[in-house]
Design a protein that fits this description.
Radius of gyration: 25 Å
Number of domains: 4
Helix content: 40-55%
Number of strands: 4
Strand order of the largest sheet: 1-2
Strand content: under 5%
Largest sheet: 2 strands, antiparallel
Shape: globular
Oligomer: single chain
Distance between the termini: 42 Å
Structural class: mainly alpha
């Protein structure tokens, strides 16, 4: 188990969060009149600070292992009471309060900020605590207490509006779903279900602060609180992390809560928060067919999606003029019949030799802020230009291609429809049109989607078990986040993660792949052999798998993870981010996990 040792600057956390808070404090004009929410919030923060101080005394007093672990659990439960507000109003310091125990990488600045907070402390004291780590533990607890004090100062200074509260409540439901009950927040202690109880309870009563005489609103408020009570009772009766039925919990409680919160907002005419939201704020649940904003990751407003741009992009996708040999187009490597992959371990370069990496899938590629396995481009517009200019892939020139296709009357008409305000065809339009076509490929119509939306109950016992394993014991959902199943982190979906899993060079697993991944772009030791976490949607038809196509079946992939990744195979990988502990999945569970992943296949490929 890795223990992080460092000196951390609280001043840095303060600076990171200040700009965000200024925006949040000023962006709403409909100010919340009743100060009870803010006062209660500050009171709860004070209680948390007291509990952290008690925890520190337990550590300093050489308390026994169980006493220290219980004091930790109590403190994090207190944090869960205020999580909805801390994560919403102070997201940057929140990362250092309950974020993962991994360095926070500022790749553009070539800077790594060591982790801190509850999850770092959890690694020190679970599953067992050694007094040898006492100095490290005391330091971590002090840093945690300092960060909480900084958050208190921020929350005392801002104005909390109706829109803020509604938005924060909806995000908290999604946080419980994607990060809470999956074990992301409590990867070792596995205290996720009791913590979900506290997170849910914290939402109770918030809606009563919206004073009105609308009987429909009052009735809906009662229904929401009743649903929360039932959800809490369910968690209390099923607190075991491994056996907890996440599918049932989401369908019976979390999704209905999301629906009712949106209805409550509409009845009370509470406006949406003025923030760039990847999940549409009027989406009834995170599983809605159109829940995600297709423009969530565009470079700027002029790149906004239109069906006309997508239609042009589709034609350009099959255009050979972008290749210097006039013999290759986007579909040469991204076959629409294979979810825009090619079924090969490696495709061929223009010179007839293997390309360096397996062809990534394009469906759902727009719902992330990093493209390519090594994440070297941030958006789809830059991605398309990168491929066109790459000497091994197309070795083309957009300007030269436009001289040819610009004379074509069909193209002229399509460009005019796609960019009606432009008097001429420009290179950026080609990039934007291709990106728009890719943005049109997110259908969200798999068997899993229909099941989660309540449109169909055609989910077998085995498939349901597979989902519960995916989001529980197998810990897949702690990297492939629900519902996108990629590395874009919920509930705000602002950042896409990379992982170091120790992918072997070949199936015998004797050595790690020689491809250094993201490290080739950014020389940071944490990024050696790091690759973007891809989406698992349509994964059943996109074999072979991994950046080097080393595994030909989902069973092989699950077996690799079941053994603990590269380190579990016996490879020496100092920076592996994947836990190296064996998952202890049996044959039945492996079969169920694969069966579930097959439910992520879109209708077009079934």
């Amino acid at each position: 188990m890795r223990i992080f040792k460092y000196k951390f600057s609280l001043h840095l956390v303060f600076l990171m969060s200040f700009g965000c808070l200024v925006v949040l404090a000023s962006c709403e004009t409909n100010q919340y009149k009743d100060l009870d929410v803010q006062q209660n919030l500050i009171s709860d923060i004070d209680k948390l600070s007291q509990n952290i101080a008690f925890f520190e005394k337990k550590v300093e007093g050489n308390g026994d292992e169980k006493a220290i672990q219980e004091a930790f659990k109590s403190a994090r439960l207190d944090y869960k009471k205020i999580e909805w507000a801390v994560e919403y109003f102070t997201p940057n310091p929140a990362r250092f309060i309950n974020g993962p125990a991994l360095d926070e990488l500022e790749v553009a600045e070539n800077t790594a900020i060591p982790p801190s907070g509850f999850q770092v402390i959890e690694e020190i004291i679970f599953p067992h605590y050694s007094v040898e780590n006492k100095t490290d533990l005391i330091r971590e607890v002090k840093v945690l207490g300092g960060n909480i004090k900084q958050v208190k100062q921020h929350l005392e200074a801002i104005t909390i509006s109706d829109a803020h509260i509604m938005d924060a409540c909806k995000l908290e439901i999604n946080r419980i779903l994607a990060l809470g009950i999956t074990g992301f927040d409590s990867p070792i202690a596995l205290h996720s279900i009791p913590e979900a109880i506290v997170s849910l309870h914290s939402l109770k009563g918030l809606l009563s602060k919206f004073k009105n005489a609308n009987p429909d609103s009052n009735q809906l408020e009662k229904e929401i609180n009743s649903l929360i009570d039932k959800a809490i009772k369910y968690c209390d009766a099923n607190a075991n992390f491994v056996t907890f039925d996440r599918a049932e919990f989401i369908l019976k409680f979390l999704n209905p809560l999301s629906h009712k919160l949106v209805a409550f907002q509409k009845i009370n005419k509470i406006k949406n928060s003025d923030r760039n939201s990847i999940v549409k704020q009027d989406a009834k649940s995170i599983f809605d067919k159109n829940a995600f904003n297709v423009d969530g990751f565009i470079p700027s407003e002029e790149y906004a999606f239109t069906t006309e741009k997508a239609a042009l992009g589709k034609k350009l996708f099959y255009e050979n003029a972008f290749s210097n040999t006039n013999s290759r187009n986007c579909s040469s490597c991204h076959n629409p019949d294979k979810a825009f992959t090619d079924g090969l371990q490696y495709n061929e370069s223009l010179n007839g030799v293997n390309l360096r990496r397996n062809t990534p899938m394009l469906t759902y590629a727009s719902l992330q802020n990093a493209q390519f396995w090594d994440m070297r481009q941030l958006d789809l517009e830059k991605q398309s230009l990168d491929v066109i200019q790459n000497k091994d892939e197309m070795h083309g020139n957009v300007s030269n291609a436009l001289k040819k296709i610009g004379k074509d009357k069909e193209y002229q008409e399509l460009f005019k429809k796609a960019f009606p305000k432009s008097s001429k065809i420009e290179e950026w339009q080609v990039q934007n049109a291709l990106a728009s076509y890719i943005r049109s490929l997110n259908t969200f119509d798999s068997k899993f989607d229909s099941y989660m939306r309540g449109e169909s109950n055609r989910f077998s016992v085995e498939e349901k078990l597979g989902f519960n394993l995916f989001a529980g014991k197998a810990k897949c959902a702690t990297c492939h986040f629900i519902p996108l199943f990629n590395g874009t982190v919920p509930p705000s979906f602002q950042k896409t993660e990379q992982e170091v899993i120790g992918t072997p060079a070949d199936k015998n697993g004797k050595k790690i792949s020689s491809d250094l991944g993201r490290y080739l772009q950014n020389q940071m030791p944490q990024l050696k052999n790091a690759f973007k976490t891809p989406s698992l949607r349509n994964v059943a038809i996109t074999a072979p798998y991994m950046h080097n196509g080393v595994f030909s079946s989902l069973e092989e992939v699950v077996d690799f993870y079941n053994k603990g990744g590269g380190v579990g195979l016996g490879l020496v990988i100092d920076n592996q981010t994947l836990p190296s502990d064996k998952l202890e999945l049996n044959d039945k569970e492996i079969k169920a996990l694969v069966a579930f992943m097959k439910t992520l296949t879109d209708k077009a490929y079934q």
